[in-house]
Inverse folding.
């Protein structure tokens, strides 16, 4: 445990002044800052808004409108890729892999750093939302402080769902950027998958598209958006799948995979099987029809 | 005791792409072992296998008396390494870079200042390592390798890309580490002159096979043992007849005779003089280190 703690601390130091850290800071505060500026400019409307009971919900939705569909997925794609670029760009993998720590420690301490950055991103975003409500009242005497009580439970619940929705992107981007040296490739694939997922958002099986869940989470309740599957279960399942594949491949990182291809394929196949069982268990009874399409999708993933 | 013992090490990327064949090498404790070979000979692959960066396919690797496979973490705690280019986070300062490895190796905080002083970089301040010269980066790389007081240093071409002054600095540093701290050093290079000036033991690898292993003296003995002597006499025909037992070649009025040792020169001259041949000129041309190396790998 001590080794893991020190390993995690060392990973944290690497983030200082890194682009990944700046991206998290800027990404978390960008949308609230834009909304804040707009609220300061349109202070009369802000005054009316702050007098409403549901002002916090309005601000929350306004921020997430842009965040869920584009900014957050793009941010996650970039951050997950940039984290591993710190090692690749500085030729540091070899030094890290010859340090006296197990491959498990290296993998999970890096993963924890990415998670904490995601967590930090959400904290900053919510802090930003809070400030968009409060700051205008400090600038203009005509603007009251938000009338409604800050709905902590609502914020926590919604944030949790958005976080679940973004996990598959994090998992798959982490997987790709860990194993592909050229960071343009995972970023390019990530953007392509995001665009493809957004195009397919109105598809009846949109719940099978792993880069879609944050957007669906935001659009939930829109009657034009068909949602047949339990997207949160799908999101968690995709995330576990990506993480496990990533982990297994990392453990084989020091070996010539071509000589162990059979072993790797068997492990990945078993993990996929577990994933199928896992997601089958998660799915609700009313979505039996969607399960068959899910299996088709799994087979497609395995073959591809 | 040997710091590193490698027996029958083999490695291949595919069935048709064999990189190492039955490599065996012994690095005695307290030595500076120069691992020589042309580019693509298998030096880096051997070092990567020794460090566990590549999974061993066959053979045995023992470091400081322990098998690497079964004691990976324990063994790595005693090794400092610098493989090819130094692994330095360019957006961080020298101290921040060292702090990363200090956390992992769990060393005391004052070790950072100590190793910076040791490599002569105590005054770099808050300058980011991305702005360092190549020589400074190499020194930081060595500082990282030294941070946890390793018993064994494994360096792969540490003077690559350095100017002559930088090469001398690194060489002096390594000599002093070996002499003052008793650190065993395994250093790979394709620069013969560097190895000649630094090492106590030499291993030569070519096309994945070990061609020579021994002390520097043994290597120099090879150098002294072979060469040629150019002789000009008053009778080319008679001289050629007398020296038939040696490998000879004739160019203009000069005979070039292959010799195995300096004793051969005395013997040749004695033969000529006792046969009343006037020797006008006898020039020995002993092999230099490059020729010995080329003879070994060819």
């Amino acid at each position: 445990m001590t080794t893991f703690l020190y390993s995690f601390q060392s990973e944290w130091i690497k983030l200082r002044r890194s682009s990944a850290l700046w991206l998290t800071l800027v990404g978390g505060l960008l949308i609230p800052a834009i909304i804040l500026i707009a609220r300061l400019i349109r202070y009369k409307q802000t005054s009316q808004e702050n007098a409403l009971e549901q002002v916090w919900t309005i601000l929350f939705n306004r921020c997430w409108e842009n965040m869920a569909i584009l900014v957050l997925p793009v941010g996650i794609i970039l951050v997950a890729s940039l984290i591993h670029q710190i090692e690749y760009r500085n030729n540091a993998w070899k030094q890290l892999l010859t340090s006296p720590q197990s491959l498990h420690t290296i993998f999970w301490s890096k993963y924890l750093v990415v998670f904490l950055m995601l967590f930090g991103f959400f904290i900053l975003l919510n802090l930003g939302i809070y400030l968009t409500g409060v700051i205008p009242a400090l600038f203009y005497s005509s603007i009251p402080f938000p009338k409604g009580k800050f709905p902590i439970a609502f914020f926590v619940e919604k944030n949790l769902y958005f976080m679940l929705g973004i996990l598959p992107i994090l998992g798959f981007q982490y997987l790709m950027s860990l194993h592909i040296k050229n960071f343009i490739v995972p970023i390019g694939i990530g953007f392509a998958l995001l665009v493809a997922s957004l195009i397919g958002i109105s598809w009846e099986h949109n719940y099978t598209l792993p880069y879609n869940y944050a957007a669906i989470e935001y659009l939930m309740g829109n009657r034009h958006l068909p949602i047949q599957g339990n997207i949160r279960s799908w999101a968690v399942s995709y995330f576990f799948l990506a993480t496990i594949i990533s982990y297994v491949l990392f453990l084989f990182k020091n070996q010539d995979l071509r000589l162990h291809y059979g072993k790797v394929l068997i492990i990945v196949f078993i993990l996929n099987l577990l994933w199928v069982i896992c997601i089958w268990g998660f799915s609700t009874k009313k979505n039996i029809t969607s399960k068959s399409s899910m299996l088709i999708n799994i087979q497609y993933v395995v073959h591809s | 005791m040997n710091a590193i013992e490698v027996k029958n090490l083999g490695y291949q990327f595919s069935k048709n792409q064999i990189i190492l064949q039955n490599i065996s090498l012994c690095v005695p404790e307290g030595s500076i072992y120069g691992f020589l070979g042309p580019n693509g000979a298998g030096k880096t692959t051997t070092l990567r296998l020794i460090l566990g960066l590549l999974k061993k396919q066959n053979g045995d690797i023992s470091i400081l008396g322990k098998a690497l496979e079964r004691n990976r973490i324990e063994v790595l705690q005693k090794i400092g390494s610098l493989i090819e280019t130094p692994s330095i986070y360019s957006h961080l300062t020298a101290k921040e870079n060292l702090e990363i490895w200090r956390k992992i190796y769990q060393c005391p905080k004052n070790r950072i200042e100590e190793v910076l002083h040791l490599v002569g970089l105590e005054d770099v301040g808050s300058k980011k390592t991305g702005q360092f010269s190549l020589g400074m980066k190499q020194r930081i790389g060595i500082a990282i390798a030294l941070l946890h007081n390793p018993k064994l240093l494994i360096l792969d071409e540490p003077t690559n890309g350095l100017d002559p002054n930088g090469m001398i600095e690194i060489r002096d540093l390594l000599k002093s580490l070996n002499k003052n701290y008793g650190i065993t050093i395994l250093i790979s290079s394709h620069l013969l002159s560097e190895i000649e000036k630094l090492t106590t033991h030499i291993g030569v690898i070519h096309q994945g096979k070990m061609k020579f292993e021994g002390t520097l003296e043994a290597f120099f003995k090879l150098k002294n043992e072979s060469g040629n002597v150019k002789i000009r006499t008053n009778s080319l025909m008679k001289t050629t007849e007398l020296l038939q037992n040696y490998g000879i070649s004739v160019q203009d009025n000069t005979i070039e005779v292959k010799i195995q040792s300096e004793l051969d020169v005395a013997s040749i001259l004695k033969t000529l003089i006792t046969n009343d041949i006037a020797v006008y000129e006898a020039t020995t041309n002993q092999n230099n280190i490059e020729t010995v190396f080329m003879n070994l790998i060819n």
Summary: The mean pLDDT of chain B is 87. Chain B has two domains: 2-214, 226-297. Residues 141 and 160 of chain B are 13 Å apart (CA to CA). The interface with chain A takes residues 13-14, 48, 51-55, 57, 73-74, 76-77, 79, 81, 83-92, 96, 99-101, 103-106, 144 of chain B (CB under 8 Å).
